Amino acid sequence: MEFAGTLAAAFGRVHCDENDIIDYLKGCPGTFVSGKEIARKVGGRELYDKDRGWAIPILTQLVRRGIVETDHLGHFRLMLETKKKKEKEQHISPQILNILKSSGKSFDGITLEEEAQDDNPVPSYPKTERQTSPGPAGFKPDGGDQS
Asked: Which residues of the chain fall short of a pLDDT of 50?
């Protein structure tokens, strides 16, 4: 329930029904779902039969808080975390950094900064030819026997 703790820290207290709706929407990421379907799946048969639109006010509140987004048809989905992904740093090896810098292309939104050199860089070892084991006695790789 790590997500609910994050929500409580970011948006204040999260109601039990809000939590259930968020858990349901986490099961279908990126897909818009109608309010009635959410009410039917989350609330169960009794609550849905009693009031088919019970989830709409809760969903509206979640939209206002920025937890859930809606499309032009009034369907809902959990907000995608694109802002956090854009801010994420990607560390690359110095060799790749040199290749990118020497390519001469511009990389919009990406800063190509020289990484700090380590005191003990990892040495590169020369490639050697692969040695093969002789195999079982009497076996030739060409398919014949020594007998």
From this structure: 1-2, 4, 7-11, 115-116
